[in-house]
Amino acid sequence: LQAKEEGWQEAKEAWQKQEEAWQKQEEAWQALLQKEEAASKALLQKEEAASKALLLAKDEVLESLFEQSKSQRDSVLELKGEIVQAKSRAEAVLANRFILELSAGWHAKEEDAKVGRLSTTKQCESFVRKHLLAENGGLNATCKGILDQLVGECCGFEGTEDEKVVSNALLLMFNKLSRDIHQPNWSGELPEGIYAGGLSRVIGAALGVWIARAQQLGIINFSVTLLDHAYEPACEIRAGNITKVVA
Q: For the chain, what is the mean pLDDT?
């Protein structure tokens, strides 16, 4: 009986040792899993940090490129302005598109970076909506007064009193003028100076509103002779004021 009990005791001790061995093995597996989990987490954090650093670097590069592009565009616009004004002292210069580009560039500087990243077409639309139109889509009070003055001066823009039509023309102005970049064959000899208009009564009236308002805002510091639909001088716009050209 004693030998039997000793045998059971040995078996029990052996089982306990086996359980201890299994426990140690389980602990070792848990330690390994924790180490792998920690390594995976560290790798993920490192990848996230690298990804963020890459995105930040990309943003910085894009911002730098945008600033360079913006600076170059401003320089080109400034140079173009000097050329237009220099040429206008010796010949007649049609500056339809240049006046719009000048307004878009000024507006982009006045607004946030989001506007600066827009195309010139969209910048022109943004300029029109902020400075020329009212919330209802018609002309704002200042521009309505300019249109009334254009019509009232009998400059050849009678029949353009519908401000909704003029407002739509303003919004589409850059696209329209982009299709007519080439200088047309003007009728007769025009004296030296800067001119705009000459496409239609509505486009002419819209350009007149744009130019006068741009002068009031300080965007344009030169006078502009507005042409009628026959490319004949209709009125002079100087410092936002309109005067009929007397033949």
A: 81
DSSP state of 170: H
How does DSSP assign 105-137, residue by residue?
Answer: HHHHHHS-HHHHTS-HHHHHHHHHHHHTB-TTS
Q: What is the mean pLDDT of residues 172-179?
A: 83
**CA-to-CA dists, residue 79 to 75, 84, 166, 194, angstroms:** 6, 9, 31, 16
Q: Is the dihedral of CA 221, 133, 129, 183 positive or negative?
A: negative
Closest CA to 108 of 222, 219, 240: 219
In the chain, % helix, strand, coil (3-state, to 5) comes to 65, 10, 25
Q: What is the mean pLDDT of residues 125-142?
A: 94
Residue 204, pLDDT > 50, answer yes
Please state whether 197 falls in left (phi above 0), alpha (psi between -120 and 50) or beta.
left
Instruction: Look at residues 134, 137, 156 and name the one whose alpha carbon lies nearest to residue 207.
Output: 156
CA distance 126 to 188: 37
Which stretch of 88-97, 127-136, 185-194 has the lowest confidence by average pLDDT?
185-194
For the record, the structure tokens of 34 come out as 């924790």
Contact 199, 226 (CB under 8 A): no
**Lookup result for tokens 């639309």:** 125
* Model confidence at 225: pLDDT above 90: yes
Mean pLDDT of 183-207: 79
